[in-house]
Amino acid sequence: MALWMLSLSRSEYSAAFKGSPMKRAKLRGLKRNAAVVLGNVGSAQDVPSLISALSDEEPLVRGHAAWALGRIATSAALAAIHMALLSEADSDVRAELSAAADSISVRSSPSESK
User: Fold this and answer.
1) Is the CB of residue 74 less than 8 Å from the CB of residue 83?
2) SS3 breakdown of the chain: % helix, strand, coil, rounded to 5?
3) What is the distance between the alpha carbons of residues 86 and 51, in angstroms, rounded to a whole number?
4) For 25-79, how does the pLDDT look when each residue is reduced to its tens digit (9 = 90+)?
5) 107 class by beta-carbon count within 10 Å (0-12 exposed, 13-18 middle, 19+ buried)
6) In terms of C-beta density within 10 A (0-12 exposed, 13-18 middle, 19 or more buried), how is residue 77 classed?
7) Global pTM?
8) What's the Cα-to-Cα distance from 77 to each of 3, 14, 20, 112, rounded to whole Å?
9) Is 19 left (phi over 0), alpha (psi -120 to 50) or beta?
């Protein structure tokens, strides 16, 4: 369900939730929540949808997609984060992208023996 919500267009959202209290959350809130769910319980299979969300028109969605990619921490996620950093203008989203990249890098670094 989270993948479906993350991929909704405005027209699909309006049609799916017409007359529903879900419309109060607004599309950006629904997509943000979907990204949070995927960051908490998602897997490598969810990475392509989160990568797509890095191009969402809403900075809120892009930032949470970056966070989720950092939590899932695949090489594809890291590559997408680096690509997004090249063109992202929003400073808050850039901060999330950088934090996610750092998180993945730390997890993939070999442990130092003491």
Assistant:
1) no
2) 80, 0, 20
3) 14
4) 899 999 999 999 999 999 999 999 999 999 999 999 999 999 999 999 999 999 9
5) exposed
6) buried
7) 0.92
8) 16, 30, 34, 24
9) left
